[in-house]
Amino acid sequence: MWTDQAHGVVDQIAKVIELAGVGIILAGLVIATAAFVHRGLRSRDWRTAYEHYRSNLGRGILLGLELLVAADIISTITAPLTFQSVGLLAGIIAIRTFLSFSLETEIEGRWPWRRTGGRAGRDGEGGADDQGGRDTTGLR
Asked: What φ, ψ does residue 96 adopt, rounded to 5°?
């Protein structure tokens, strides 16, 4: 169904997206580090600067991981479907998704389904209020 030329184009698109993901992670590292040093030197409050650094660095990594997962999904279009290739892709996506979930939880300081600004918070579902205002997860 697909021509060799179309496979080549899709494969190149996936590689460009992968490079963009790596570039975003590296740019996030550089920008977060520069902001950390600037904030620390300006305020002399290195603890707060470090908290912002971790948060900013995590956001850069998260965005880069999202692009890497997208590139993996796109690359399945051109990959031959064998149990080995599908299993490898599933493993890579599972690991990257777990990393994204873990980083998001670390950055936000609460479980993703416990956000107050999202749909669950507006409808009265979810959040600490379901437990009488107590957070039983240890995360906020």
From this structure: -65, -35
What are 66's two structure tokens? 């999202």
Spatial separation of the C-alpha atoms in residues 113 and 121, rounded to whole Å: 9
Q: Count how many Cα atoms sit within 13 Å of the Cα of residue 124 in the half-sphere of its side chain.
A: 1
Alpha carbons 21 and 36: distance in angstroms, whole number: 22
- Each residue's pLDDT, cut to its tens digit, for the chain (140 residues) gives 567 788 889 889 999 999 999 999 999 999 999 999 999 999 999 999 998 999 899 899 989 988 998 998 888 877 777 888 888 888 888 888 888 888 888 877 777 777 666 544 444 444 444 444 444 445 44
Question: Which amino acid, 117?
Answer: G
CA gap 92, 48 in Å, rounded: 34
CB 18 within 8 A of CB 68: yes
Give the whole-angstrom CA distance, residue 59 versus residue 31: 11
Rounded CA-CA distance 81/84 in Å is 8
